[in-house]
Amino acid sequence: MVSPELSEPECDPGALTLDDFAVDERTGRVEACPQGHRPLVVETKRQARRG
Ligand SMILES: [Zn+2]
Hints:
This protein is mainly beta. Helix content is 0%, strand content 29%. Zinc ion (ZN) binds next to loops.
């Protein structure tokens, strides 16, 4: 399971999941939270692959 870390001052990131956010399916980037705010930092904890 992916654990997103969302730094978004206007909402409680702990109450939101990545599913709640609008995600660009092409890039996988989070565009906006359900309230339309822009997250400052989005980090998904994935196992980094090298190579
Ligand atoms: Zn928000």
